[in-house]
Structure formats: structure tokens, C-alpha cells
Amino acid sequence: MSNDSGIRVLVEPLREFCVQVLARLYVPLEDAETTADNLLEADLRGVSSHGVARFRRYVRGLQTGQMIPQPDIRLIHETPATALVDGGGGLGQPVSKRAMRMAIEKARQVGAGFVTVRNSNHFGIAGYYAMLALPHEMIGICTTNSAVLVVPTFGRDAMLGTNPISVAAPAGRERPFVLDMATSTVPRGKLEVYNRMNKPMPLGWATDEVGEASTDAGHVLGNMERLAGGGLLPLGGAGELLSGHKGYGLALLVDILSGVLPGAGYADNIYLKDEAGKPLPTNVGHFFGALRVDGFRPVAEFKATMDDIIRRLKDSAKAVGQERIYIHGEKEYELTDERRANGVLLHPKVMADLQAMVGEFGVPFAH
Amino acid sequence: MSNDSGIRVLVEPLREFCVQVLARLYVPLEDAETTADNLLEADLRGVSSHGVARFRRYVRGLQTGQMIPQPDIRLIHETPATALVDGGGGLGQPVSKRAMRMAIEKARQVGAGFVTVRNSNHFGIAGYYAMLALPHEMIGICTTNSAVLVVPTFGRDAMLGTNPISVAAPAGRERPFVLDMATSTVPRGKLEVYNRMNKPMPLGWATDEVGEASTDAGHVLGNMERLAGGGLLPLGGAGELLSGHKGYGLALLVDILSGVLPGAGYADNIYLKDEAGKPLPTNVGHFFGALRVDGFRPVAEFKATMDDIIRRLKDSAKAVGQERIYIHGEKEYELTDERRANGVLLHPKVMADLQAMVGEFGVPFAH
């Protein structure tokens, strides 16, 4: 979800501020940098919901002990092409970057590498990890499960997360293909936008407390807050008419790869609380993969064909009223170029929250 | 798309008939059996569009030389975890089964195996290949590209196939998870059903010749026949409101994995004809993968968790008016049980066509 307005802040000082706050919370420098890079990447790409807007939650997680600043990350099992890593309950970003690098190294050795992670936390945007494969002339793959928000087809209650899928593939002269999509029709943030505008949602985004498609964003958000039933709909919407069962299938697939395969949390068995209501370790799980392009075909040939398929799609005839056909990742690359030069856009509330941390942690914010 | 009516035919005589007809067309026995098995599996699972209803097209392809009965299947390149296979322009099923078996063998050796195929043809249902991994305690993956029918987001012309994704994962007491989905909202067959019923289609299935969402199935089918513009919509429908760009992204992803990666046809550069209008080799491409479950986690633990996630979903509260939440593959397993006992259901036209082949090929059909 891209922001159209907000306060401009340059990337470097914002990154440095996040790194220093994490360091005050005993996160090792390299891990703090990885975490900050991932958050900034989200803001650069226009996915502000996963950018520094989420930083407070990470800070709180570290303060309450829900996230461990210096976790015991362990390699539990491996084969030449696969591995299972335990994240030790730390921040999601550092263990995820390590796991993706391991997948890349395995792919370098044997052609393909797949690494799953259990006992982790929110890892930011999935595309960040899939894209790590690109400089290695590999196809990068990443999925994660997440907090329960999505209602299965014919169900009433949220049972799955928005469980994103990201795949990145290199191109030649053209920009890489970078798919990074939640398997729900829309993220919760879209409901919040419609609620603020007091505008009816399109049918197909969310259901009410009895499992019927709803246009009332405020009502659905209230239900979600109180766990009163209903939630987001999978890609394809309610029922089977527009194939909501396919989005549900993709969300479940992601939970199998990211949650069941590593032995992490899954379905509604994730982000649990103890009897006193205190959050337990989230036990989020992830799935990372890398495929060497030249394990199949020479890289130069592959890239030339990528350029051709991209041009064919972009140059094909447009629907009436449309001027442009996009390739996945293209809008985000353009936003990144612009924002790297001019700064990312932060919501005033997010900015105020960062300012509050200046005093809280004694870290300057020279923006 | 499941058939609710038709002529009952028992599996064994129908399979034998198909095998014998293919043998008359110089297809080796084992390849003929694989092809017939795949077609029958589609009819058993209720995907009649990919069942023996398609047999005539295979027969014609073999007769015209578009499909080679005894192709020169070659291993072009391999690493421990990857391979590229050239299908030699033969039937899609035999080379696909061989490629999937190769992926499984690679996974047995190093934990993961991925094999792409170029210069192939229509391979039937994707789920057939993904499911081959199940008895090996592996997760099976399969995608293929296909004839151009789907319009990209903001586009006017069909540029991609319905490009299915299938992933199968074993369970314990419960039935396996078998996702097998086209990345379009619906297949062309659904438009044909609505056209026969003279019923308006839901918005989100297809677009007209200027790229606007249409409810007129006959009109859209006519356009598709004449290549006059428009076609099927990706999962999520037209534009971005219900996230049609995600379905478009999945269709493009499948084309990258199945078409670009092996160097097969892709986008509208597939199913080409020569200047006289004669079909050239289709150059369809496929992507097969296998992941050893115990490359990550002990099989017994994985299966117990699969059973638990399946039960949690199935036992969760139902939407008003609904009595059952399904897991992907569940309906198809139930249909298979019933049809294996009582026979598959063939449309009278398909039955008549099979009867015509009795005389054509001198093969008895003892149904």
C-alpha cells in the first residue's frame, strides 16, 4: 500500500536512528543494520505498513522479551540442498537474511537450496529476501506465515495469516521481476484507509462476524480487534464464484511451507498468549529458496528471454482508458529511485513516535 | 470443473481403449499408458476438461505431426539438484512423468530436485505430477504454461496462459493437501457452461475486445475464437481493486518458471502457426520440483502437524449457510473414490467421438 503524503525523511539518518535504537536494546550491530535495512526497503518500495511504521512493535517486542535481542540461532538439520534453522525467538530479519544466504550458498553448490526457519518473528517484507538471490543470477523464493487475519472459504473465523509469497527473477536490460504479494485480497491497512475515509469497501475484501462479505470497514476492523469473527478474505474473495478457494489454497500452501515444514506455529496456533494475556514467543516460520538459473539454462539466454517476455507484455495493447501495463516490482523500483533521492514518506504519527524514542533511548535523530 | 451428468464408463476399459488407440499411432506402450492414466485421473478427479474429452486433440496432434509419437527426449543439462530436459516435441505426459521422477530422485539424493522441460506439449492435469512425490514423503511442485487465453492487468489482449500451479504435501491420517489451480479466475470451460445456459457471467471472469470486464460469455468466447481481443481474467479479476494484478503476477511467475527457465515458448510466443496456418510444434514448457520432507523435519512430525492444521481448518466455525470447510484435493479424492467404483462421467459428444475412433483405428471399446 503506497503512501501519497507524509513527512519526507532521508534514508540514511532514518536508518542510522533505527540501528542505534536497536543497539540500545542489545541487538548486535550487524543484526540491527539488517533489520533497519529491511524496514527502510519497505518504505522505499512504498509498502509503508511494513516500514518504520512497524518499528515501535519491534522495540516493544524487544522490551517485553517477546523478541530476544541476541538469540541462540541454531542449524537443526541439513542436507546438500535443504536446511532447518531455529531462530531462537529473535528478530525475524537477521535470521531470515542468514537463512536466505544459506539457501543461495546451497544453490551455488548443488543448483537449488531451500531453508526453513522456525521460532522466528515478523521479518518485514518478503521481497527483501527473494531479491537477495538476484545478484547471484538466481531465482529467489520466500514465504512466511503471519498473525491470523484471513478467513478460509466457507469459514466464519480468521484461521490463516495474510501469508505472502515473493519470487524474484533476474532480467537483462529490463528490471528484475519481483512478485511480492499477500495471499489475501488486500492487507488490513486497506480496510483502515477505507474506514478513515468512511467509504464502503468493495465486496471481496472482508467478511463480517457471521462470515458474510461486508462493505463496512469499521465494523470488520472492530470485529477483528475483539476477535469476534470474520476478517480478511483470501485472493478471489468470498466463496468459490470468483475462486476465493484459490487464494485460500495459496494461504494454506504458504502455511505448510513456512509453518508446518519447519515446525513453527501455523494456522491459529501462532502469536499465542499465556493465561494472563501476555504474548508468548510468536513462533513465526519462514521458507526461503534459491534456484541457479544456469542449473537449467545459460544465464545470458535466460536474461534475454526475460527481457523479451517483459517487453511483449508491456508493449501489448492496453485496455480502454489505460496507458501502461506493469511488470511486478516495476512500480516499486521507480518509487525506490525517487525516494532514495528525496526521502521516504512517514505518517505524522510515525514521525511523532520516532521523536518520542529520541528521549526514550537517548539517540539523536538528525533528519 | 466437475461434471454432474453424462454417460458412465468404467475406468479400465476406457483406459485400455485410449492406450490401444495411442499404440496404433506409434506411441510406445509405456508412454501410451502414462498418457491414458493422466487423462483418466482428470476424469476421476472431476476435471473433465482435461480428461478424455481432450483425447481427440492428442490424436489429431499425433496425426498431423504436431506431436511426435516417439520423440527424442534428451537431458540437456544437469546439476545435483536441477536439470533441463528437451521433450523432442512428443506428448506432454510421458516426458513430464520422467522429469518429475528425475526431480524426485534428485531430492532423494540431495534434499531437493527441480527439473524443467522445453519442447513439450499439453501435459494434462498438473496435480498428477505433483502427487507423484507423495509416496516418497516429499512435497511435489508442478507448473506449466499453456495456450494464450489470459489478459494482463490493464491490458486488452490475451498474453498469457491459464498457467496452473500444483503443490502436493503428504499428511498422516488425513488426506494429502493437493492444490491444483489455474491462475486465471476461471477456465474457459466455465464461460462455455454459462454460454450454453445463456446466463450472465459474474464480473471478474473475462473481458471484452476493448479490455472491459464483461458478463456476456458468448461474446467473449466469440472474440477469443477470432483473436479479436479480450479473454480470461487473472485470479482477482479486472484492474487492481480486487487484486487482479496478483493473479497476473502468478500467471507470469508460472511462465517464467515453465517457459523462460527451460527455454520453451512463453507469453504469446507459444502454439504458433506457420504462414499457411498450420500449427507448428507448440513448444510448451513445464517446471517440476520435489522437496524431501525429512530434509527439514522428521516425516512423522510433519505429518502429525499436517493432520492438525487440516483438522483445525475443517473444524473451525462455518459461515452462515455453510456446513463444511474443504482442504484442497479433498473433493477430488472423494470423487475419485466414487468414480473408480462406478465409472467416470463422459459427455455424450465425447462418447460419440470415442465410438467414432473404434472404426477409425480398429480398436474395440468394451465399455
Question: What can you tell me about this protein's structure?
Answer:
Two copies of one chain form a homodimer. Chain A contains eleven helices and eleven strands. With 367 residues, chain A is of the alpha+beta class. Chain A has a single domain, classed as Ribosomal Protein S8, Chain: A, domain 1, CATH 3.30.1370.60. In chain A, helix 4 (92-110) links the parallel strand 3 (82-86) and strand 4 (112-120). The longest helix of chain A is centred in the N-terminal third of the chain and has 19 residues, at 92-110. Chain A is globular and about 55 Å long. The interface between A and B is large, with 90 and 90 residues.
Give a quick precis of the structure:
2 copies of one chain form a homodimer. With 367 residues, chain A is an alpha+beta fold.
What labels would you give this structure?
homodimer; 367 residues; alpha+beta; Ribosomal Protein S8, Chain: A, domain 1; seven-stranded mixed sheet; two-stranded antiparallel sheet; 11 helices; 11 strands; globular
